[in-house]
Amino acid sequence: MDLTGIRKLRDVSYTMRQRVGMWTGIPVCVGIGPTKTLAKLANHVAKKHPRSKGVFNYNELTDEQKTKLLKQIPVEEVWGVGRKLTKKLAVHGVQTVHDLRHAHVPTLRSEFGVVMEKIQRELQEVPCIELQEIQPDKQQIISSRSFGNMVTELVILQDALSTFVANACAKLRAQKSHAAVIQVFLQTNRFRKDLPQYNPSLAVPLPYPTNDSLEVNRWASYLCERMFKPGYQYKKAGIMLSEISPVTHRQGDLLEPVALANDKLMLALDALNQRFGRGTVKVSTQGAFRDWEMRQERKSPNYTTCWDEVPVV
After folding, report:
1. CA-based nearest residue to 29, from 53, 10, 12
2. CA-based angle 8:130:241, to the nearest 5?
3. Which pLDDT does position 283 carry in this prediction?
4. Is the dihedral of CA 127, 132, 137, 143 positive or negative?
5. Bridge-partner residues for 246, per DSSP?
6. How far is CA 94 from its chain centroid?
7. Cβ neighbours of 156 (radius 10 Å)
8. Which tens digits make up the pLDDT trace of 180-226?
9. What domains are defined for the chain?
10. CA 252, CA 235: separation in Å to the nearest integer?
11. What are the phi and psi torsion angles at 206 (to 5°)?
């Protein structure tokens, strides 16, 4: 949020933190900075350093204190810099946030593109990522999950993908959009070096843009069957929907008849799942197996959302 013009920022921040904790039971930290990237870094400092008591304002630091702080934070903590980028930046001698802030701009742009240059300018306190008051429609939707147990059978993988398709298509319909491309990926456990590794991925353009869970699920199941190889233990799978556009924009086909969309069926499905809980109504290939679901032995009780788990005194 934009805190421009608000006085006593520290008092306001402590009040926000205390109120979220009181109303939801979720501990949060508050980071304040001149840009979104630095605010995110400030939030990281607030989490890691007990002296901050959950609130850290980057703007209050002197230039010397800022330099000292940024030299202590690894570059992978920067918002938008992942594991792969960290390795590539290390080749150019960029190890800390301070290194990235003062890196050679033309080299950064040529090697990593304009996004990395924007991150660098954000670290230099030049805002490049605007605050959005209205969340724009997603241009790409990914639904994936790591499995609770290793999966070795095709039908179990297809069961998991059916759930991911249902979640992704529900998001599509919620923003009144449809997708023209589907990508499916499978992954083995990259941390188990003693096991054979296999990480396939396939993407296909759909015959026509759709948000129909049944249609997308058929393609996801087909791609999974094409990629599946016995003898591997799969740890993760997922789907990605892209080339998303509003449902009002549909390109016709001169050679193919217009396919009848299951709009009313999908509306009924969404209404039932919203009223009675997600997964109440699902396709036949979804929910037959539990082997792939996450282990949740340490899941926090649903005190605020389930009557049966409200504590009784």
Report:
1. 53
2. 130
3. 81
4. positive
5. 177
6. 26
7. 19
8. 999 999 999 989 889 999 999 999 999 888 889 999 999 999 999 99
9. 1-60 (no CATH), 63-133 (1.10.150.20), 141-247+261-276 (3.30.1490.100)
10. 40
11. -75, 150
Extract the runs of DSSP E, i.e. beta strands, from 173-277: 177-188, 201-210, 234-246
**Cβ–Cβ under 8 Å, residues 116 and 97:** no
Cα gap 116→81, rounded to integer Å: 8
Q: How far apart, in Å, are the Cα atoms of 311 and each of 23, 216, 305? A: 16, 42, 12
User: What is the residue whose two structure tokens read 């810099």?
Assistant: 81
The model carries a pTM of: 0.63
Q: Report which residue type is found at 22.
A: M
With a cut of 80, say whether residue 253 has pLDDT above it.
Answer: no
40/58 Cα distance (integer angstroms): 10
Three-state SS at 48 = helix
185, 237 Cβ separation under 8 angstroms: yes
4 DSSP 8-state letter: T
As given in the structure block, the two tokens for residue 76 are 């992978």
Q: Beta strand pairing status for 55-57 and 30-32?
A: parallel
Give the chain's end-to-end CA distance (angstroms, integer).
Answer: 38
With a cut of 80, say whether residue 80 has pLDDT above it: yes
> In the numeric block, which tokens belong to residue 246?
């509003």
Q: Are the C-beta atoms of residues 220 and 142 closer than 8 Å to each other?
A: no
What ranges in the chain are assigned the alpha helix state H?
9-24, 36-48, 63-72, 83-91, 97-101, 105-112, 114-123, 154-174, 213-227, 263-276
* C-alpha to C-alpha distance for 101 and 120, rounded to whole angstroms: 5
Contact 242, 137 (CB under 8 A): no
Q: Rounded to the nearest 5°, which phi and psi values hold at 60? A: -80, -10
